[in-house]
Amino acid sequence: MTVIVAHGQRLTQLVDPTPVECALRVDPFSSHGAGAAWTNMGTGTTNWGRSMELGRNRVLLVAIALVFIAVYAWLHLRAAFTLPLPWPDEPDFLWPAIALARDGSLLAPEMNRELHMMWMPPGFMVFTAGWIWLFGFSLELVRALSAALIVTFFCAIVLMLRRHQAPLASTLLCGLFLLDAHFVAAGNVGRMEALLLAVLGLGLWRLSRDDVITGMCVLSITPIIHPNGLYFVLASLLFVVISGLAAQRWRDLRRSELQGSSRISPLEWLSLLVVLACWLSYATYIAFHFDEFTFQIGAQLQRKLERSNDLRTLRLSDYALAVSLTTAFVYGLVQRERGRLILLLSCVAAGSWCCRFIGGEMWYQIFYQVTLLFTSLCLLELGSRVLSRALPNVPKLLLTAGLPLVLLAGLFGTRTLPFPPGLPDRLSFYYMRTAPSGARVDPWEMDQVAAKLRRFGDCRERVVIRVDPPADALFLYERLSDTNLLFSTPPWLLVRAGNKDSRYRVPRWDIFVVHVDRYVFPFARQMRKMAQKAAGIEPGSDEKLLIRNNADSAWYLNERERQTANKCGSEQDSIRNVLEDRGRS
User: Fold this and answer.
1) d(Cα 527, Cα 302) in Å, to the nearest integer?
2) Vertex 403, ends 170 and 347: CA angle to 5°?
3) Which among 440, 470, 466 has a CA at the least distance from the CA of 453?
């Protein structure tokens, strides 16, 4: 028996397929009506009942995805500025984006006008600059962009899994991972991980559609966003080579070239041109500043290698993960065309797992969660196929529901996933937990501090203000961007390392503002003491108190009087006017 199955506009011929394969080969997301129908060429009949059922399944999957997206949006709002706290990395990566949107250059005066290169590629900064240029700057809007990017990753993976053996169970599994604290935190911080995952998801979606050129073009942008993207490029390239050899697609491609036909569509040409332009631009910029590039990347690599994990740190769960990935990879390799989805997921999961061993960064743990997600999807697909063949007499509903329940029990039991009834109160990320919305940042408090600093915006020369914690400078800049004030922020990476290299020198501060509150992440306590010492401020003393909002939050201010007097003139009477009319509530 031969069955012809419709995949959008393509036809695939199967030899003696099972009924399960017939059902799986129908694309529920096809644009042809409520769902593509499979036709038995021997009888000419069309299973329209099956088509209607697939249409209902598609609506159900979309509804489930929307529910998880709504819950994720609620968690994002609850996390506010407490999960995570305003992070010191954010000004490091957002000042260049602000400078590009404001001045047309990534050289941010807030950091160092002479610093042409950073230890991170500029992809995230350029992308965020476009967002800031369109909607203006606020840290809340930037974090909302990160949340939208995480949702994009979720939607792309759900679309990729439309041919999964158990699409309903796989969508539920992806949704539960979406509610994990790592994904909530990554979608609530101005860093590169959210953009990297969104691009990864879109690239994998195109690869799953057999659009190799567009998929690889999208994935090849990831190293410009974050160096960890290189792992995903190599993993995807491995999948393309193996799947192409297994299906003899390279021979077919060569034959089409000899016959003079072209398979490159306008979208693929556009993808190639965009990727080529991105890499040529970045390579040209590196060539003009090669010494700085080698210095920055060298310092970053040295720091990562000093903090990297080796095989001695592997736990029992890591060995179980390695066995699971190896099994899925071998199964996908043996099954060839039928195992392409498992092969793709296992290759990318292995690439994502490599990020765990580099640097020991807390933010890289989200890639470990991605590894667990893709491995779970592989096991779900593999288990469904094996059990459906080994136990043909067992009702399909029992297998479809039983296997995901066992998998979820293991994920909940090992606390890999948060138990939904405990959300959001039990959601925590590296000692940080959700709190009432706005608990960390009081808009009234920020408005009061900004109002007291605004009078220095009209000085003859630009007044330089240093703020600690560094991320609080972003809230003040949001309110004082129309003034001539300059917020000076030393790169957090070098502050923690105690680096005093002249290439990281920032503008000398005239005014030092210190915000003291109870929301301090553990490893930053020593950094806060260093900042208070540099500012000449003793918390608890009212001598240099600027404003006290409540028992948990106080702002202190110190100045270099001679510098401010020269810049602002004697009529300003230095900073004393600000301190004398300080407000309390």
Assistant:
1) 22
2) 50
3) 466
Q: Report the number of secondary-structure helices (H) and strands (E) in the chain.
A: 24, 12
> Is 14 within 8 Å of 38 (Cβ atoms)?
no
Tokens encoding 566: 């020269």
The encoded tokens of residue 564 equal: 């401010």
Residues 6+ positions from 435 with CB-CB distance below 8 Å: 80, 82, 83
Confidence (pLDDT) at 14 = 42
Judge whether 93 and 125 are in contact, CB under 8 Å. yes
Per DSSP, the three-state class of 439 is coil
> For the chain, which residues score pLDDT lower than 50?
1-45, 254-261, 497-498, 571-572, 583-585
Which spans in 104-166 are helix H?
A: 123-135, 139-160
Angle subtended by helix axes 139-160 and 123-135, to nearest 10: 120
Rounded Cα gap, residues 496 and 508, in angstroms: 19
Q: What is the pTM of this model?
A: 0.82
Distance between first and last Cα of the chain: 82
253-286 burial code (b ≥16 CB/10 A, e <16): eeeeeeeeeeeeeeebeebbeebeebeeebeeeb
Q: Are 184 and 431 in contact (CB under 8 A)?
A: no
- Measured CA to CA in angstroms, residue 434 lies from 17, 144, 219, 414 at distances of 51, 16, 33, 22
| CA 159 from centroid of its chain's CA atoms | 18
- CA dist 25 and 28 (Å) reads 9
Separation of alpha carbons 417 and 369, rounded Å: 9
Amino acid letter, residue 71: V
CB 416, CB 427: distance < 8 Å: no
Reported as a single tens digit per residue, the pLDDT across 308-324 is: 665 556 777 778 888 88
Residue 563 has a pLDDT of: 63
Separation CA 368–CA 36 (nearest Å): 36
Sign of CA dihedral 288, 291, 293, 296: negative
User: Which tens digit of pLDDT belongs to each residue from 519-572?
Assistant: 776 666 777 777 777 777 777 677 788 888 776 788 888 887 656 666 676 544
Q: Which residue has the tokens 């840290």?
A: 139
Q: For residue 40, what are the β-bridge partners?
A: 3, 45
| 156-183 per-residue burial string, b: 16 or more CB within 10 A, e: under 16 | bbbbbbbbbbbbebbbbbbbbbbbbbbb
User: What sign for the dihedral angle of Cα 319, 320, 323, 325?
Assistant: negative
- Virtual CA dihedral for 461, 463, 464, 467, nearest 10 degrees? -170
Residue whose pair of structure tokens reads 């290759």 in the numeric block = 347
